[in-house]
Amino acid sequence: MLDGIPDLKSMSMEQLHSLCDKLRNKIIDTVMKNGGHLSSNLGMVELTVALHYVFDFPKDKVIYDVGHQCYTHKLLSGRADKFDTLRKLGGISGFPKREESEYDCYNTGHAGTSISAALGIAKARDIKGEDFNVIAVIGDGSFNNGLVYEAFNSVSQINSNILIIINDNHMSITPTVGSMHEYLEKLTADGEQNAKKRRHETIFERFGLVYDGYYDGNNLELMIDKLQQIKQKIRTQSIILHVKTIKGKGYLYCEENPQETHGISAGNSKATEYSSVLGSTLTQMAESDKRIVAVTAAMTPSLGLSEFFQKYPERAIDVGICESHAAVVCAGLATEGLKPYYAVYSTFLQRAFDQVVVDICSQNLPVTLCVDRAGISGSDGETHQGEFDLSFLSLIPNLTIAVPKDISEFRQMLLASANFDGPLAIRYPKDGFKIYDGEPFKFGKWEKLRGGSDVAIIACGERMINIALSAAQIACEDGIDCCVVNARFVKPNDTHMLDALNQKYIVTLEDNALIGGFGSLIDMYFSRSGKIIKNFAYPDEFIPHGSVSELIAKYGISIKNVSDYIIKNAHR
Amino acid sequence: MLDGIPDLKSMSMEQLHSLCDKLRNKIIDTVMKNGGHLSSNLGMVELTVALHYVFDFPKDKVIYDVGHQCYTHKLLSGRADKFDTLRKLGGISGFPKREESEYDCYNTGHAGTSISAALGIAKARDIKGEDFNVIAVIGDGSFNNGLVYEAFNSVSQINSNILIIINDNHMSITPTVGSMHEYLEKLTADGEQNAKKRRHETIFERFGLVYDGYYDGNNLELMIDKLQQIKQKIRTQSIILHVKTIKGKGYLYCEENPQETHGISAGNSKATEYSSVLGSTLTQMAESDKRIVAVTAAMTPSLGLSEFFQKYPERAIDVGICESHAAVVCAGLATEGLKPYYAVYSTFLQRAFDQVVVDICSQNLPVTLCVDRAGISGSDGETHQGEFDLSFLSLIPNLTIAVPKDISEFRQMLLASANFDGPLAIRYPKDGFKIYDGEPFKFGKWEKLRGGSDVAIIACGERMINIALSAAQIACEDGIDCCVVNARFVKPNDTHMLDALNQKYIVTLEDNALIGGFGSLIDMYFSRSGKIIKNFAYPDEFIPHGSVSELIAKYGISIKNVSDYIIKNAHR
Questions:
Q1: Residue A173 touches partner B, C-beta closer than 8 Å
Q2: Highest CATH level, class, for A273-427
Q3: What is the ipTM of this complex?
């Protein structure tokens, strides 16, 4: 029934219901094996089937905001046979991908882009004089993001009609927060019977949109009926369709635990080793240090901060999926002498780049950025890898950047940060494995983990220290003496130690893009030295989905590659 | 009357009116001499005097969004005697600056941050158990920005009360666009007499704010009265006060030409040499190439695109001050085969960093970013310099970065871009001086402007080419043969030419920060070559206000410094 592209339009309602069951089972089976987004996808089965029943994809275009809910769409558009490769290296992505299918018209991954993209696509349609429908499906969690408002604001300006479907399930990864959410709740509480009356009151009408809702998005017949009606209207008017879906629908455990089952073994919605250390250390510090405030953007549990939020609600702020706003709130808090810790995934920190530059760093304010899921983050792919932060952070004046070699050093860095009076970023990966021996931690100072006179390997972060130590040992067996340096501060560099490195060969290792990263700072430092430097880092391309270890190896950072390079070159 | 900090609270209404006249004259005199923001500041005189009359600064805190309207505040807070140094190197900044006065509690420059910052400051106040008022003053232009919505959305979550004053003058730099603006207009049209009725309808109430307005913000008595009433309430409730002001108030020419007089001889609200070439070339290209769309974020005239917008309104989109949204709209347009040109100031492109990474470049879409006011932009200071774009753009995979050596080459790049099928950024400075001789332009290829076997100077952009050619000539007189290369593509580098450079000494010149910039790419390229490389670029600090030439020299990039370095080193 799922082979090829099923002809939904020829199916009876009974067959469609049976299809929904099959889709749901396929999603559950696959996600249980491969990991992935479970609850959000289960909630969207009926609505997606209704969309495919009513509209003509790929001629019509649908954009799934963030993309956490596109599995049914993938299964209905010719990818069911490859669906068991979901999130595997070389397999089907967990997010919409134009490269994968003409049914995916726009790649998503970060929240709030769907309406802007839909407006762009609809505008292009109108400029070209073509005839198709453009639909944005957006969750209530994304609805907090400022892009949505910017897009609303220009609906009348751009003047190309689209359908916006609010898939309201009360949740981001955590329950949705904020006034817009409360407002959606209020609309819901009013009930469908008041639709006529409500029409003249909704916030959406203020933006020149027609509001229609709410409806039960898990009711297949109702969704088909509604979409058929709307299809007649959306070429002459932009419409917001507000539907309620149940996150985890059809799988009781998910329905009851939508937060825990947002992502399954994807690691992205659970606290990791480093996140847990962040949470426990910050909670402990906050007890005696009343200046400490924790700020998140809709990711509190996976950042390890649930306990902090419970224990110090008056000093805990979750602003929803608003990374830019969170950064400015932190800057405001810091101007008044508080110590904000803004915990955020590396990839989402990109959303606050300007605010980190202008609001935090140009004012030189003591905000600590706890940059989680830095480096390769794995199976979510291109839009979720954290391979750019060392590059986009190190270009910012006044910012100190720390990279712990293990969770123990991370804890020491956090403790030391309380008395550090400037902007600080601490970046750490998804996974933590072991605790290394080392010299006592000193703020701003690197440490030598191993001596050696032929080659200096300078590595930052746990994954790279691990590779450096093993490669050094292999080279040693080959008669080449390698020193290994833990570059735990990427900026400023420990110039004292750099100046003391008298090895002719320098090798740098980092879990980051080559361009603008740690290695490039070292290249620049030694640009007039005549030293021979080799940088191991990720090449200048977007890194797709796969496991962390597969991807690090795929991009050439392996014990073998590093030791081979050293043995080949230092022997010359 | 303006000496020291005038004691407004002891003044009669007559004296206050006379003060307003003096302030207005002082602003006009100074801006006419020094350049600066004129109309926006003239409109804010009465409101600012009323704020200082009613509130207790610096104990109370006021944040001016963007900061285009803070001159009266500066004049009333002890900076009148130094006001003639406005925007001069080492003088008073045109924007709020904490470093300058305790009356400036938060630095601004980019739109939309004031409410988020005010919430952060108010939250800090409440955490510390202190007692003061926090006020955000925001123009209707900034009101389009998504940060405002994100802040509204968390007002109830953060739960610390503030006063938001909407200073509604119908204008960004250009007339404000978008639905929120239309909504504000509608509120205004309703008139004050309907306030009671309107209360229950405003969009702001949906966000849990109390709306009070609108009122005439140029009526001093009314403003004092209103603010005194509000002062009694804002510790228990967040309030939005909507006032109308006249941009340019009190200076007839400004009132009639608010767009032209937004910035005076600041160059930032007028089309420059490069901007004019963008406008004329793109308008010409669009005639035959129906795929071309121009997109701006509230800066159309100063980007040189007024003619394009007039001639092709159906292919021209100004989304208001929404840089992120604009980037996503461009990505959407490009997925449908159109060729969007997104013109934006370098500093404001920081606002769209994530969208350039994820939406444009990870989808490898043919969007052309026309990055105006790149490099040092001058008298607006830290928040407006364009010294970071080569760094934050070159780290992005798939993006090609071009830097024309003059307006003629810029035009050729634009013409060539029409057939370039990928993301492209062309960055250019505020000023253009001359047209250089050179080899015929080839896409992706550098050119040698001068041969020489001892030293290779690789320069990018007009300002740097100019310095390179002069320095080479001086070195030549000293017997050192310098080749000069126009690195008109910063990424990818022209590796063919790089490989052919057999000089031992390499010098790079760029109008950008050192870290992560063009020079760092060259250092990395030659990191295993043993060449001796010197990078001239801006040091790792924020660059304050001053003239372009003063600042470039201040940061060590001068003909003398470059030629001195070459002569000193290449002779060894």
A1: no
A2: alpha beta
A3: 0.95
